[in-house]
Design a protein that fits this description.
Elements (H helix, E strand, L loop, with lengths): L1 E2 L4 E3 L6 E3 L19 H7 L27 H4 L20 E7 L2 E6 H6 L2 E6 L2 E8 L4 E6 L6 E2 L5 E3 L5 E4 L3 E4 L5 E3 L4 E4 H7 L4 E2 L7
Parallel strand pairs: 5-15
Antiparallel strand pairs: 1-2, 2-3, 4-5, 4-14, 6-7, 7-8, 9-10, 10-11, 11-12, 12-13
């Protein structure tokens, strides 16, 4: 990420300033929750959404319908990667997408393919109790605080059940109990390519097994 104010490049996986005026400082970005989903699923839930104009003023073509309007369509659909790394891990295909979490310096990756099979995951990472919900159609993974609850999936990916059978709604800002009596906060996380995550977190755990470099 580029900060035009200070002409600093920031690392999107670690939040560190790596090149420019702020490099080698103690500054770090605060990680926020991020959802990677389909436009259709997002628009259905957020019909008042505004979008950026595709005429950005930069030499980047967002109008090619054959490439679904994506400037990186070819890269997303290629097995190759732009940034060779010194550390790799063949537990997954190098361009496999994972939900990447890191709490209290305890990194862990959850393969999106594994989440297809297990769309609700109750876990504890770095002392943080969490639950991950996954929408298989939209391929959207969201982590939330768990607060001692244990959740299970339903036929509706936007609804989960707690240990008492009570329904909770999966929302962007939190996991909300159907009667409105309790809300569990959304936790930060991002979807990353496996090779990128491993390059900066070689000791990461991998959901279902321990990934070793």
């Amino acid at each position: 990420m580029y900060d035009s104010g200070t002409r600093t490049l920031w690392h999107s996986l670690t939040g560190e300033p790596v090149i420019g005026e702020l490099a080698f400082s103690d500054l770090r970005f605060k990680q926020l929750p991020l959802t990677l989903t389909t436009w259709g699923d997002w628009l259905e839930k957020n019909p008042e959404t505004k979008v950026l104009d595709i005429d950005t003023g930069f030499d980047r073509n967002y109008r090619n319908l054959n490439k679904r309007g994506s400037a990186y369509y070819d890269y997303f659909n290629s097995p190759d990667w732009m940034f060779p790394t010194f550390q790799t891990n063949e537990a997954l295909n190098l361009k496999h997408r994972v939900l990447a979490l890191n709490y209290a310096d305890s990194p862990k990756a959850y393969s999106l393919e594994a989440l297809q099979e297990t769309p609700v995951v109750n876990d504890t990472l770095g002392g943080q109790e969490l639950v991950i919900t996954f929408n298989p159609l939209a391929e959207a993974a969201r982590p939330y605080e768990r607060a001692g609850h244990n959740f299970s999936p339903t036929q509706d990916p936007d609804v989960v059940l707690d240990e008492d059978g009570a329904e909770w709604r999966v929302e962007e800002t939190g996991l909300v109990k159907s009667d409105g009596s309790e809300t569990l906060a959304r936790l930060p996380g991002q979807v990353s390519y496996w090779f990128g995550w491993v390059a900066f977190h070689p000791d990461t755990e991998l959901f279902g097994e321990v990934a070793t470099p």
